[in-house]
Design a protein that fits this description.
Blueprint: H1 4-7, E1 28-31, E2 36-39, E3 57-60, E4 69-70, E5 75-77, H2 79-83, E6 95-98, E7 110-113, E8 118-119, E9 123-128, H3 134-143, H4 145-152, H5 164-169, E10 171-174, H6 177-221, H7 226-231, H8 238-247, H9 249-252, E11 273-276, H10 277-280, E12 281-286, E13 300-302, E14 307-308, E15 311-312, E16 317-319, H11 322-327, E17 332-333, E18 338-341, E19 343-344, E20 353-355, E21 361-362, E22 367-372, H12 380-388, H13 390-398, E23 401-403, E24 406-408, H14 411-415, E25 418-421, H15 424-467, H16 481-490
Helix pairs in contact: 6-15
Length: about 500
């Protein structure tokens, strides 16, 4: 290896070439080519079973590059594969880098290996010289991912790739070896503290979700307003509302209301009544099966992804042609209607619903529109709540079926969803308290998100300080990096291993 660039420094230990930032005394900028020996990869023939059956040697591919340290891998090869293919054994303590993968559009995966491994052809490994701590190098390259991609990416390739020669010229700020060890130890200690903080943030987020579920459950069982009922009389009960709706002969033919405890439902106050979503609705209808298009016009149709639990993203729209719109006149939603998802790849997103508030639009056949009976007046907000929590959500989750890889809910099952009906005055109080509780939770989540962003910025600040020489104090007694490199060269410690002939693939 050529170490001229490594030792060509001034009296303060700074590289005389252009450098991204000034370095402390004893540090120097060194190209990757001068910091170790490169090893490429290869793939043993997949047609030779003995290369892969009962393998014990890790074979690293881009899909394994998700951790800081590579231990085991998804694929293992045999000693026979190593002996009879182009792949080579990479020593423990090497730094692995992805050279060819779609992930290079936005990331530059780097990892260390704590044991000998082999690589596929989309990776390269740098085995550092004795003057370089592999932990330090891996930390620096991971922190410099954007710079590597900007400086070393190939142009005009079908698959995103790193140019090996450009990567070899990519320079690293190298401090004295003892200082490298101190830097790595300090980074690890600080990152461990940060990780503990992140765990606390995650626990707080989970606590918020637990609070949200408990709040909604209390809302739809009457627990939330137990104190309100003790001091407030009602003129119209929930049972009165249910009887009024069921008095309509056209609605009386619908499925009878659940009977509470006999149906395995959570108990509700005496002034409440049980009904079903189908009974409370004047119409329940699937949307249009017309395939939407991206070209904007006046015929807006909501996308399936627009509907989530108690939230509709009205910006999630596509468009129908004039002929499609004319054929889909019945598949429109108006402000105040409830929309529920009918199919989704995730069961958690099937049967979730929300009130639609906005101009009249079309909706697709994987969404079900529920238009409530006029007797409910402003009751849509409570029905939205009851369908997404407690017994309502429990019923929906129990009736989700899998068809062709999609999770689905039939319209009939949705109609059977049990809905508790409180007195109108109590429903308003419930909604007020829920809104206050969710707003407080949202404020707390914003604080947690801001703290999480601060954590990421703190990590970057620590790494920047580390590689600018500001994280740990310099020790004048440390041998300068340039002197170490020169000494290693003089003692022939730096050496390029003999080239190994390419083995014929079997």
């Amino acid at each position: 290896m050529n170490v001229q660039a490594a030792v060509y420094t001034n009296e303060r230990g700074q590289d005389r070439k252009h450098t991204p930032w000034p370095l402390p005394a004893g540090w120097t900028w060194v190209a990757l080519d001068d910091l170790g020996n490169w090893t490429g990869g290869g793939t043993p023939s997949k047609t030779v079973a003995s290369f892969w059956t009962d393998g014990t040697i890790p074979w690293v591919s881009p899909k394994d590059m998700k951790l800081d340290v590579i231990g085991t891998t998804e694929d293992l090869i045999t000693k026979e594969a190593l002996d009879r293919s182009a792949t080579k054994l990479v020593p423990a303590g090497s730094v692995l880098m992805v050279m060819r993968s779609g992930i290079l559009r936005h990331s530059f995966p780097v990892a260390r290996t704590d044991r000998p491994v082999t690589l596929n052809q989309d990776l390269r490994a740098l085995t550092p010289i004795n003057a370089l701590d592999p932990n330090y190098l891996a930390r620096y390259l991971a922190r410099s991912a954007r710079a590597v991609l900007d400086a070393c990416s190939k142009d005009g390739t079908t698959v995103n790739s790193i140019d090996a020669k450009s990567l070899g010229r990519f320079r690293v700020p190298v401090p004295p070896l003892a200082e490298q060890h101190r830097i790595v130890a300090r980074i690890d200690a600080l990152f461990e503290e940060i990780a503990e903080g992140e765990q606390a943030l995650d626990a707080a987020r989970k606590g918020l979700e637990t609070y949200r579920r408990a709040l909604l459950k209390a809302a739809v069982t009457g627990e939330l307003t137990a104190d309100w009922r003790e001091t407030t009389d009602v003129d119209v009960s929930g049972q009165d509302i249910v009887r009024l709706i069921e008095h309509d002969l056209s609605l009386a033919k619908r499925r009878p209301a659940p009977s509470g405890e006999s149906a395995g439902l959570l108990p509700i106050p005496d002034t409440w009544g049980w009904s079903t979503l189908g009974t409370l609705a004047s119409s329940v209808r699937n949307g249009t099966s017309s395939a939407p298009r991206a070209t904007p016009n006046d015929n807006e149709i909501l996308r399936i992804s627009a509907v989530r639990s108690m939230y509709i993203d009205a910006s999630q729209i596509r468009y129908l042609s004039e002929s499609q719109a004319a054929a889909s006149a019945e598949a429109t939603v108006q402000s105040g209607d409830l929309l529920f998802t009918r199919y989704n790849g995730s069961a958690d997103l099937v049967g979730v619903g929300a009130i639609y508030r906005g101009p009249q639009r079309f909706y697709p056949d994987k969404i079900i529109r529920v238009r409530l009976h006029a007797a409910l007046e402003d009751g849509a907000a409570f029905v939205e709540l009851a369908a997404n929590a407690g017994n309502g959500r429990k019923h929906i989750a129990a009736n989700i079926k899998t068809t062709a890889g999609q999770q689905g809910l039939s319209g009939e099952s949705l109609k059977q969803t049990p809905i508790p009906v409180p007195p109108p005055s109590e429903a308003k109080e419930i909604l007020r308290r829920v809104a206050d509780g969710l707003a407080a939770a949202s404020d707390t989540r914003h604080v947690l998100d801001a703290e999480a962003s601060d954590v990421q910025r703190l990590r970057q600040s620590i790494l920047r300080a580390a590689f600018e020489g500001r994280l740990v104090p310099q020790d004048p007694g440390d041998e300068p990096a340039g002197a170490t490199l020169a000494r290693l060269k003089a003692s022939n410690t730096i050496a390029t291993p003999a080239r190994r002939g390419r083995r014929a693939k079997s």
